[in-house]
Specification:
By secondary structure, the chain is of the alpha/beta class. It has eight helices and five strands, in the order H-H-E-H-E-H-H-E-H-E-H-E-H. It has one domain: 3-Layer(aba) Sandwich (Rossmann fold), CATH 3.40.50. Strands 2-1-3-4-5 form a five-stranded parallel β-sheet, sandwiched between helices. Helix 3 packs parallel to helix 8 and helix 5 runs parallel beside helix 6. The longest helix has 24 residues.
């Protein structure tokens, strides 16, 4: 197959995946994050690997681009960003507690956790026991009066049912899932920016 054909096929796949996204779930997820802003609650984003960079990117966009024209800004924090703290928690307690331990310190009733995971934790496919640190944090947040927005792919994994709203990318390819997660977070940011910048 030529490089030109590979490029064409990849972009066709991206278009097909985007066309299958559940718009209503996306809208409800946006509503949860908007309500957090209305009620002056915090947003915590979490993810591993490529999803960690998406978590950081999303928190950045909420704090900067979405909030640019608003009198009161989002308070969003990516729990992957404090490298000394993450490495200390990993060294002392293990990787499974890096988000849970931070939420125990920072989380308050009504806050929102955005959990980003390609497989959504252990699923019915071949995901295995991945992203257990996210699921532990999600359970803590739910048990303590929080809301959960999930972004996953493949079959959605445990996150699909653990989250209040979970946007599942209908793809079985990690690059496609991670790429679409960025598209979705940018879509969410654009709509949130419009909402919070609108005259009251």
């Amino acid at each position: 197959m030529s490089e030109q054909n590979r490029t064409h096929d990849y972009l066709v796949e991206v278009s097909e995946i985007a066309g299958k996204l559940d718009r209503k779930t996306i809208d409800r997820a946006i509503g949860i994050i908007y309500d957090a802003w209305i009620n002056d609650k915090q947003i915590f984003t979490i993810g591993n690997g490529g999803s960690a960079s998406t978590a950081t990117h999303f928190a950045c966009d909420l704090n900067k681009w979405v909030s640019d024209m608003a009198e009161r800004k989002f308070r969003a924090f990516a729990l992957v960003d404090n490298i000394p703290l993450v490495s200390a928690l990993t060294n002392d307690n293990g990787w499974s507690d890096i988000y849970y331990e931070q939420l125990r310190n920072f989380f308050r009733v009504g806050d929102v956790v955005v959990a980003i995971s390609v497989h959504g934790g252990s699923g019915s496919d071949k995901a295995g026991a991945w992203s257990q640190n996210l699921l532990k944090a999600v359970k803590y947040a739910k048990d303590n009066g929080g809301k959960i927005v999930g972004l996953s792919g493949f079959d959605g994994g445990v996150l699909r049912t653990a989250a209040d709203e979970c946007i599942v990318v209908p793809a079985n390819s990690t690059p496609h899932v991670e790429g679409m997660h960025l598209v979705i977070t940018h879509l969410m940011c654009e709509q949130l920016r419009d909402r919070i910048s609108a005259p009251s």
